[in-house]
Amino acid sequence: MNKKILLLGGGGHCKSVLDSILEQRLRGNVAIVDDNLDLGSTLMGVRVVGGLKDFEKFRSEGFEQAFITIGSIGNPQFRIELFNRLEAAGFETPNVLDKSSVVSRYALLGKGIFAGKNSVINAGASVGDGAIINTCVIVEHDGVVGRFAHISSACVLCGNVHIGESTHIGAGTVIRQGLTIGRDTTIGIGSVVTSSMPDGVIAFGSPCKVVKNTDSKFNPMQAETF
Predict the structure, then answer these.
(1) Residue pLDDT, tens place only, 12-45
(2) Residues in contact with 82: Cβ distance below 8 Å, sequence separation at least 6, in sequence order
(3) Which of 82, 115, 193, 218 is deepest in the core (most CB within 10 A)?
């Protein structure tokens, strides 16, 4: 790929995405904007050219594409705002599919999706704009992953599972076939989900149970304390 791409965010998630990008693009065609990295510094050999506040200016400097490399745990709102800004500025929003990922030709993908190493998106599945399908995730046949959902590493979504928009599924979670997880919901790490979950809740465990509404201050990363 010869088009120049701008990565929005230079943290840990950026490293995962960047590793996948550099398998397929020349390093010189990639740049990063981040408010917490020094201008002119590098990440994995890729230069930092500015901050997030005014990234739109790079559209007129030869960057045709942009990709959000800021992750999210439980609140993707900033990612959504960045996505809307980059589209309004006229950037193309490609998908970044790691070379080791397996994506069925019968799957339906939106824009700005990341599929990490050894992930699988099977036949009949659909994945919405801005979703993160992280390392070793399996999205089985006929599954639906909503816009800006984040499916963390090593999750298994069995056949015909529906994940709502802006929902976070913690690492290592297994979801039984045919279930629906509502939008704006967080499922804690290592859960076994055997029943559908509503919108706007935090749930975890084996079997997975609702513990809080999303207006609480519960941290899904600390689920083991409950």
Answers:
(1) 999 999 999 999 888 889 999 999 999 999 999 9
(2) 8, 52, 68, 70
(3) 115
